[in-house]
Amino acid sequence: MPHNIPTPTLNRLPIYYRRLLDAGEEGAAYVSSAELGRSAGVPPAQVRKDFSYLSQKGRPGVGYEVPALASHLEEFLGLVNAKEAVLAGVGNLGRALALYPGFPAYGLHIVVLFDNDPDKVGQEVGGRTIIPVGQMGDTVRRRKIRIGIITTPAAVAQEVADAMVEAGIKAIWNFAPQSLEVPGDVYVKNEDLAAELAVLSHHVNQMKIVPEEEPA
Amino acid sequence: MPHNIPTPTLNRLPIYYRRLLDAGEEGAAYVSSAELGRSAGVPPAQVRKDFSYLSQKGRPGVGYEVPALASHLEEFLGLVNAKEAVLAGVGNLGRALALYPGFPAYGLHIVVLFDNDPDKVGQEVGGRTIIPVGQMGDTVRRRKIRIGIITTPAAVAQEVADAMVEAGIKAIWNFAPQSLEVPGDVYVKNEDLAAELAVLSHHVNQMKIVPEEEPA
DNA sequence: TAGATTGTTAATCGATTAACAATC
DNA sequence: TAGATTGTTAATCGATTAACAATC
Question: In angstroms, rounded to a whole number, what is the distance separating the alpha carbons of residues B198 and A14?
Fold first, then answer.
């Protein structure tokens, strides 16, 4: 019944998943909502509610079966078949994401890198050759890639997004400080690092006045 | 009255701020809640409500004064005095953040880089020399740094966080996929890139079944 | 059985949105 | 004045939490 799952729930699922993997390695057959909740910083009732959206049942008095729940989450999150993504803008941040070790662990792979800087085109990053943005359309279409990552300067982000949408990309992870205009059937997740650090800085300033608790 | 500002509001403020800077450059003296709302993807009423928490008044029929509102937000977000941060773990991601051009634009500066890899200690990144983690305490205390960024492997994240807390860090931006235990007066913002990409991947999978709209 | 933990309902909490009188 | 846009209240929406009977 993956129908109308709250966004906060969705964001917690990968955290539960990670905890399940760890529990599995430790040899645990069952894990309780209390334990999963601890890993995500939420109360046990929240965990049970979250799983109720997925119709995932546990055993009263015992907990949730580790392998069964893990594989259900894998399927639900779309991690069963390796997912492929394309990345545009191979600056420092783009390079870091291209080489980030956490993605393959989730079956996620950045398979193509684009950049328009002639100095960068042709370079290799983690075994992938950087190709010019103009060739993006063909490649994305041919490989049926659906996820695009934008780590370009703000000035060209919209243009890159347009090209991605045109090529069939359906979800964009946007690291450029620039809000993107896309059709309604394309999902955009903005990751504005400077804005986030600014909020952190605000928290530090306020800390003596109003003690802040960590948001979920 | 910065008393009990909702987290979503707080996260929108830097977006409004950026729009105000742009509007200022375009020579606008006033900007409407409708326009600010567009930049953040929320309705005008939301913008007005957000400012009501800050007791920021606009002029009915006209809008909000660009320079006044911008400088109020600057102060509120703690961007007036340059903010300093320390970063531990100079891998690809750490390096990218250390060189990220968006931070200085907000008056935010990563002033010290730590790593325990003997090969990295002594290297320069953007004019800053990498020093060993063992020296963190003294430096953070001496410079009264309050913000710490963790881009280490998960295995050492807790240890680094402990050292940061011990040295007086009050806000931690944690990029390691590892939940941290810290005292109640320390704010932790987790940035789990793999989890976020996993959620994105899920959206792509679901897209044909349930059309998703972009969350605020 | 006794103890533990679930699933779910109802209560609570908090954020968003609509609506409109007040104001420039 | 007429038109535009604010500030704020009340209604709505949605997520979290408490509580407890049901179940292993």
Answer: 7
**Burial of A199 (C-beta count, 10 Å sphere; 0-12/13-18/19+):** buried
Closest Cα in chain B, distance from residue A101 (Å): 9
Contacts of A197 in chain B (CB under 8 A): 85, 103, 106, 108, 147, 173
CB contact under 8 A, A39 and B179: yes
B103-135 CB burial, b ≥16 within 10 A, e <16: beebbbebbbbbbbeeebbeeebeebebbebee
Residues of chain A with Cβ-Cβ distance to B214 below 8 Å are 187-189
CA nearest to A44, candidates A75, A18, A71, A12: A12
Query: Is the overall model pTM greater than 0.85, yes or no?
Result: no
Q: Let me know: does A147 contact A84? Beta carbons within 8 Å.
A: yes
**Cα B179 to Cα B176: distance, rounded to the nearest angstrom:** 8
CB contacts of A207 in chain B (<8 Å) are 170-171, 185, 187
Q: Which residue has the tokens 């390691």?
A: B176
Q: Are A19 and A31 in contact (CB under 8 A)?
A: yes
Which among A173, A206, A5, A151 has a CA at the least distance from the CA of B13? A206
d(CA B20, CA B102): 16
Using the CA of B10, which nucleotide's C1' is the nearest one? C15
B77 to A198: CB separation less than 8 angstroms, yes or no:
yes
- C17 C1' to B53 CA distance, Å: 16
Domains and CATH numbers, chain B: 7-76 (1.10.10.10), 83-197 (3.40.50.720)
Can you give the pLDDT of all 216 residues of chain A as single tens digits? 345 889 999 999 999 999 999 999 899 999 999 999 999 999 999 999 999 999 999 999 999 999 999 999 988 887 655 589 999 999 999 999 999 998 988 888 999 999 999 999 999 999 999 999 999 999 999 898 999 999 999 999 999 999 999 999 999 999 998 888 898 889 899 999 988 988 888 888 766 544 333 333
